[in-house]
Amino acid sequence: MKLQAEYAATLQAYKDRFTVAQIEEYTQNVKAQGGYSSLETRIAWDMIHAAVGASAICGWYDKYNANDTHVTTLALRVYNDFMVA
């Protein structure tokens, strides 16, 4: 995973800001609204933005020569690991 170096800090940011119940409630609200192609990816992106902020994410593009696919991979991994912990 290209953004592996950011995994631990991003997971900790989730733990500092969210509970599983909060994310489950948010997921139900987004699900009711519709307008997404993948609910899991939509929630993962929303949560990573809320956890670390757009500025940090934008910095990864330059620091690691990353792209949206790399950020999506990190977002999904952190999201899934957080939700099963």
Number of helices: 5
- The count of strands amounts to 0
Order of SSEs: HHHHH
Low-pLDDT stretches are: none
- Characterize the biggest β-sheet: none
Separation of the first and last Cα atoms = 20 Å
Short account of what is shown:
With 85 residues, this protein is mostly helical. Helices cover 78% and strands 0% of the residues.
Describe the protein's topology.
Blueprint: H1 7-17, H2 20-33, H3 39-52, H4 54-63, H5 68-84
Describe this structure in words.
With 85 residues, this protein is mostly helical. The chain has one domain. The chain is 78% helix and 0% strand. Helix 3 crosses helix 4. The longest helix has 17 residues. It is globular and about 35 Å long. It starts with 6 loop residues before the first helix and ends with a helix. The mean pLDDT is 97.
Question: How would you describe this structure in keywords?
Answer:
85 residues, mainly alpha
